[in-house]
Amino acid sequence: MNIFDAGLLHGADYNYEQWLDRPDILDLDLAYMKEAGINVLSVGVFSWSLLESAEGVYHFDWLDECFERLHGNGQRIILATPSGSKPAWLSEKYPEVCRMNADGQRQRHGGRHNHCRTSAKYREACARINTKLAERYGTHPALILWHVSNEYNGMPCYCPQCLSAFRNWLKKRYMSLDALNAAWYTSFWSHRFTSWEQIFPDDASIHGMMLDWQRFTSDATIDFFLAESAPLRRITPDIPITTNFHLPDIGLDCHKFARHVDIVSWDNYPEWHRYGDDAEVAVKAAFFHDLQRSYKNQPFLMMESSPGATSWQGVSKKKKAGMHLLSSIQAVAHGSGSAQYFQWRQSRGGAEKFHDAVITHIGDNKTRIFRDVVEMGVALQKLGGIAAIDNEADPDGGEARAAVVYDFENGWALNNAQLPRSVEKNYQQECIAHYSAFWRAGVPCDVISPEYADFARYQLVVFPMLYMLTEETAEKIRRYVRQRKSAVATYLTGIVNGNDLCYLGGTPGGLTDVFGIAVEETDSIADYENLEFTLDGQTWRASHYADRIRLLGADAPGVFCGPQSDPQTGLPAITTHRYGEGSAYYICARTEAAFLDRFYRRLCEKHGLSPCVLWDIPAGVSVQKRGGAVFVMNFNSRETRISLGEDACRDLLNGKTVCGTLALPPYGAAILKK
Which of 165, 226, 536, 538 would you label with 77, given CA atoms 20 to 30 Å apart? Predict the structure, then answer.
């Protein structure tokens, strides 16, 4: 089943069960959904206690009614499994389903996602309710997608069953204690293990162990998802399956996880208007959208977003005029097949009762938020079947030929590292900084895994701060550069191997011949220091980290400059090296955005990586191409004008023809086709 066959999806989480005592509200909902152009609803996500009031006691009448009412109203349904929040009777009857902390204390029932992933009782309970749901609704004509659980996380559980599973995971990985001790370098501080039962993963000084513990926790979550999904796969093999990812700082390897879902979906909550510069917020959102698209190189779903403000970000601003359409269009431009909201109707109570929804507490269709949602529904209808067009098949050049590597495991290892400068390591932010240069230039850019991605798809691949460089990835980079490709690496790349053991003989480990350099040491740049370097007659600022390198055949067009007392003065700052038929570049320090813009523009020109358009793109404006259309998005709080040259285009949003100059209002968007 292709859920995009009928066009783009416009929908929301619908907690029908919260309003069973208000039939008048349920009737209003159907009318308002029609008006807003809502064509899909996600239901049942937190409804386990109503579906199963006691073990084996099921109540589906209200969900039957929900299905029939929505289907009769023309909406399609995404049915969620309810494991994200278990019923109290389950915790009471089987305490082992609750997580345990490192001190051996069971968590009390409450919150959500506080279940033990390895608990046999919890898996059995999930399998039973999921089987019932699949048998009852699997053939319903409104069902188009399974939404398994909700926002999985990688929080640990230290119960005996999880510890036993971790030790078994280690036995499969290392086969022997000798191999494990070598991999974890347990001779340091006399940490050598002589039995598997001695291993307890709460010692932050054993970096290899803590890295493996996070890997295990991620794998255990994926295994739990597969167990949850098994009844759905068996009973409804033709209904695709997703689960909603969220921001990638939650201890899961989503590159790996995404291989097990049919459609990637995620929950998108940028902090619009909080910091004054919405272009910075926009580029971060774009990075995460492209990450979701890159997991499987196909359209994804924006499963959740807020039509207004959130209630959990500390400071969350209401969206200014135009921002709702703009931010939703941004998701579509980067590959989303939907704009969906949490939630349809604002809850009266609970933790998120002040999280905005399509229908707010006032309860009618006269609000600004509702008008914004109606506007987005109209826009999605105008865009038609754009989601069915894969960018790779786009004859107008929508396919990305540049990529930035973003590796979850590398982030975990780098977080553990006690470097001479351990504040503001900022791995994710630096990946976004390098990606931003392509975003500002209008050059399509994927966000990829070092392990699963096919580097050969790209002409240019960037490896920011790839501190943990496995031997397998190093060999992939070696083969890649040989094939007339270009690789860019930065400071803090290739420091440790896949077991978090430092490379000997110079870094980047295993690639000193490819980059033509060996890093002797990395200096910490204090906040008060002013380190600069020159390239092509211009001077640029460096900060945080700077490598002292030895040239092994590379050229150094960029050099550090400063007082003679500075140990970096006169040393290489930017290097380039020919390897095979390709080129390898190395950036020795953290740099300012203006340098990255200049550096990557020149590399794109050198390797024929064209922007989406040949226009001059003003600051704060993003241009993306998808399905033969050009999405032009103004993230500035002022009107911005773009010169289109001699191109004459039709704006799909308003049907007007645009010639010469496109004037976008504050937070305005246009979708242009010649």
Answer: 226
